[in-house]
From TrEMBL:
The keyword Metal-binding applies. Gene3D superfamilies: 3.40.1190.20, YjeF N-terminal domain. K(+) binds at N60, D113, S149. This is Bifunctional NAD(P)H-hydrate repair enzyme. NCBIfam families: yjeF_cterm, yjeF_nterm. In the C-terminal section; belongs to the NnrD/CARKD family. It catalyses: (6R)-NADHX = (6S)-NADHX; (6S)-NADPHX + ADP = AMP + phosphate + NADPH + H(+); (6S)-NADHX + ADP = AMP + phosphate + NADH + H(+); (6R)-NADPHX = (6S)-NADPHX. Binds 1 potassium ion per subunit. GO terms for biological process: metabolite repair; nicotinamide nucleotide metabolic process. Keywords: ATP-binding, Isomerase, Kinase, Lyase, Metal-binding, Multifunctional enzyme, NAD, NADP, Nucleotide-binding, Potassium, Transferase. The lineage of its organism: Bacteria, Pseudomonadati, Pseudomonadota, Alphaproteobacteria, Sphingomonadales. Homotetramer.
Length: 462
């Protein structure tokens, strides 16, 4: 089965390649397939203009020689710069088949970076780094083949300074983690995949799917669509935003449990100001959201304890993530979703004794330790599940980087949970609605305009 959404580590990619080779394919055949696919993209972009291919010593460089040959055969003016000779058998063969003579330096319309791919093990030397930067400056359009050279395939971190920006990155055989992680993602431009017959790899991550969000059933009523209780705190604005977003996330009934009635509550939102424990005892409650605007004092800790004790499916956000401890989860059976940004993730890792490097390992460690779905937010949001599930998301509009949009996301995820989705699906659906509404809300969006765009986002659902 051809997979367009799995996301691999460099080791998983090599293992998948080994499976194909064991089945009778050669590295050269894979390189030819990958290089031809990549050449199609370069051909379209170049549109007859001059192309420079920068070839490194490994198989990424080998792909470059295939690209140079295919484009030259089609009559495109192509030059190759090769600071290091090909060192693998497949790359040497591809170089021989190209049959040209490399040049020391070049300028032109399109640079094709085939210096290093998944085999990069250390930072580029100053000489190589300067050459890459010089060539990048001498070509207005830059395409990275598989990965921009200098990026760690598994973490998305740059292994050195001065990395150029690319308008297009063509992934070969499968997505690598770096394609959907920052900071790498910010310099890759558009991302496209050339498929070469790689099969499913056990333990691989995947890209988030477009959810199947439909209108309520013909026989729906407010309780069948889900009653969500939003536990508010000392800063009512944040919980109000989350509740208003949740009202448009699919749940049929949203109640805000507030210490006192906040200003600006819309007529269609029910606010209960009595003791939270009483309100949470309602058996019709399908899910609870706590954390947005909770603050971190004694009162907040008590409200969080009450929310946890009620044992409803629960989303914890913001301040609740600073108050949560492993002991507080003892005896809970109901599903749990956590929505930390980087700072909250660090606090949670300390509280749950998760010792791990990097966003993915931390999210997976926390998901296992708290038996929760973890939505690790940021410009490169990922979702980790307690059974090792790992979901990457395509970057949403950068206009989401404004206060209050996290409250909207928490409200949406909680609303999907109340509506009956399992926690991982609720996370994917909430993120999709959030990203789609953000795109529709346009530039300089605010949480209000984001919430206003939610009905139009629903119109775009499958
Ligand atoms: N998987 C697949 O199915 C397919 C994969 N394909 C392609 O293969 C690529 C992976 O190829 P690869 O493993 O040969 O690694 P690649 O990135 O070319 O470089 C490794 C070389 O660079 C060297 N080196 C490393 N760092 C260095 C540094 N800083 N400065 C200097 N040297 C450095 C390292 O040598 P070392 O010194 O570390 O021993 C080694 O010689 C992949 O990205 C894709 O494009 C397709 O062709 C077909 C299908
Ligand atoms: K590259």
């Amino acid at each position: 089965m051809i997979l367009f959404d799995q996301v691999l580590t460099a080791a998983q990619m090599r293992a998948a390649e080994d499976v194909l080779i064991a089945a009778g394919t050669s590295v050269s055949a894979l390189m030819e397939h990958a290089g031809r696919g990549a050449a199609e993209w370069v051909w379209r972009v170049a549109a007859g203009r001059t192309v420079t291919v920068l070839c490194g010593p490994g198989n990424n460089g080998g792909d470059g020689y295939v690209i140079a040959r295919v484009l030259a055969e089609r009559g495109l003016p192509v030059q190759v710069v090769a600071p290091l000779p090909p060192a693998t058998e497949a790359a040497q063969q591809a170089c021989r088949r190209w049959g040209g003579v490399p040049v020391a330096d070049a300028a032109g319309a399109v640079l094709v970076d085939c210096l290093f791919g998944t085999g990069l093990t250390r930072a580029l030397s100053p000489e190589l780094s300067q050459m890459l930067q010089r060539l990048a400056a001498a070509h207005p359009f830059r395409i990275a083949i598989d990965l921009p050279s200098g990026i760690d395939s598994d973490t998305g971190q740059a292994l050195g300074d001065g990395m150029p920006d690319y308008q297009l990155t063509v992934a070969l055989g499968g997505w690598k983690r770096a394609h959907w992680l920052m900071p790498a993602g910010a310099s890759m431009g558009e991302r496209r995949l050339v498929e070469i017959g790689i099969d499913a790899v056990s333990g691989a991550g995947r890209l988030a799917r477009r959810p199947e969000l439909t209108a309520p059933r013909p026989d729906a009523h407010k309780y069948s669509r889900g009653l969500l209780a939003v536990v508010g705190g000392a800063m009512p604005g944040a919980s109000l935003l989350a509740a208003r977003a949740a009202m448009r996330g699919g749940a049929g009934y949203v109640r805000l449990l507030a210490a006192e009635r906040p200003e600006g509550v819309p007529d269609d939102l029910v606010v209960l100001t009595g003791p939270a424990a009483d309100a949470l005892a309602d058996e019709r409650i399908a899910a609870v959201l706590a954390g947005s605007g909770l603050e971190r004092g004694t009162d907040a800790a008590e409200r969080l304890r009450t929310a946890l004790a009620s044992d409803h499916p629960l989303v914890l956000d913001a301040d609740a993530l600073h108050l949560l401890t492993p002991a507080a989860l003892q005896g809970r059976d109901a599903p749990l979703a956590l929505t930390p940004h980087a700072g909250e993730m660090a606090a949670l890792c300390r509280a749950f004794a998760v010792v791990a490097e990097g966003k993915i390992a931390q999210a997976q460690g926390l998901a296992a330790a708290a038996n929760a779905v973890v939505i690790a937010k940021g410009a490169d949001t990922i979702i980790a599940g307690p059974a090792g599930e790992l979901v990457f998301t395509k970057p949403a509009t950068s206009w989401l980087s404004v206060a209050g949009t996290g409250d909207v996301l928490a409200g949406l995820v909680a609303s999907r949970l109340a509506n009956g989705s399992a926690p991982l699906a609720a996370a994917e659906e909430g993120l999709w609605l959030h990203a789609t509404a953000a795109r529709l809300a346009g530039s300089a969006l605010l949480p209000d305009t984001l919430i206003a765009a939610l009905p139009a986002a629903w119109e775009q659902a499958a």
